[in-house]
Prior knowledge:
The complex is a heterodimer of chains A (126) and B (190). By secondary structure, chain A is an alpha/beta fold. Chain A has five helices and five strands; from the N terminus they run βαβαβαβαβα. In chain A, α1 links the parallel β1 and β2 (30-36). Chain B has 190 residues and is of the alpha+beta class. Chain B has one domain: Chemotaxis protein chec, CATH 3.40.1550.10. Chain B is built from three helices and seven strands. In chain B, strands 1, 2, 3, 4, 5, 6 and 7 form a seven-stranded antiparallel sheet that branches. Chain B starts with 44 loop residues before the first helix and ends with a strand.
Amino acid sequence: MKKARILIVDDSSVMRKIVERSLRQAGLEIVQVLEASNGAEALVVAQNNALDLILSDINMPVMDGLEFVRRLRNVENAKNVPVIMITTEAGESAVVQALSNGARGYIRKPFTPEQIKERIAPLLEE
Amino acid sequence: MNRDIGNPTAPQRVQIMLSARASGLDARGGNVSPKLKIVPPSGGWGSLLEMATREVFEIMLGTPLEPMADPEATRVTDMTAMIGLAGKLCGVLSICCSSATATRIAARMLGIESEEVTDSVRDALGEMCNMAAGNFKAKINGMADACMLSIPTVVSGRDYQIHSLAAGERFEVAVTLEGLPIWVVLDLHS
C-alpha cells in the first residue's frame, strides 16, 4: 500500500482530528494529512495538492459535501481522486446523490478505525 | 432505562416500522402529513435513545456509559448541546452536562488528557449530539431520508433554561461517564 496524502473535510475540527487519528490507528501509511472546514476550502486544497484520497462530511456550511464532490469532478488534477463521505446522514437519497456526484462510498458516524480501514485500504491500493 | 444493552463495537440495527399512516412526505422537501402517527419501538423511545447514545459514546470515546445512581440528583448542567429533528419525527435532542464533563468528553474523543483540552469542548459536545441524533434516527426504518438534522447548537453558562416548543413527549436518559453525570433528552413534537 502506498503512502497516502489525504484531505479531511469537516466543519468540526474535533472530527477532523478524530478521523486523522482513526486513519493512523487503522495502520494506514500516511505521508500527509491536509484539512479543510468546508467544500469551498477543500476545492482550493485539491487544486493545489496531489491527493490520494479525500474524506468529506456532507453537512457543512458555505459548501456542503455533495456540492464539493460534484465540483471536484471539474478540477483537472483532482477529478479522479477517490472521495469517501463520512457523515451522520446515512439517508438513501444523500448517499445516492453523493455516489452519483462521484463519491466512491460512505462511512457513517460513529465509526471505528476498523471500519475506516475496511473502506479506505482498497482505494489506496488502486 | 434499559441497562442490558452491552458494549457494542458497532451500531446495532433495530427494526422499527413507521405507521402506515405516516406516509406522504420527504424531509428534503416533499409533502408533510399533518396528522402523522409514528409507532414507538416496543421498548419505547427512551430505550432507543439510550441505545443510540451508548453506542456513540462507546465507539467515539472508548468508554462505556453507566446508569446514573440518582437521576433526580441536583443538576449542574452548564453546557447543553442541541440538535433539531424535522420531518416525520420532529423535536429536539439535547445532551446536558457540566463543563467538566464536556471537557472529559472532548479529551476522550481526542485521546488526550482533560488538562490538554483547549478550545474543543463546544465542538466536541456538538458533534456527540449530532452523532447521537444521527444514530437514533438511523435505527428507525424509513427515517434516514424522512428526518433531517439541524446543525448542532451549544449553549453554555450557569444561568439559563431551555424551553422546548415541541409540546409533546419528553424522554430522558441519565447516565455517567467515568462518574460524571450526563442527561440526554429527546423532546418530541406531539
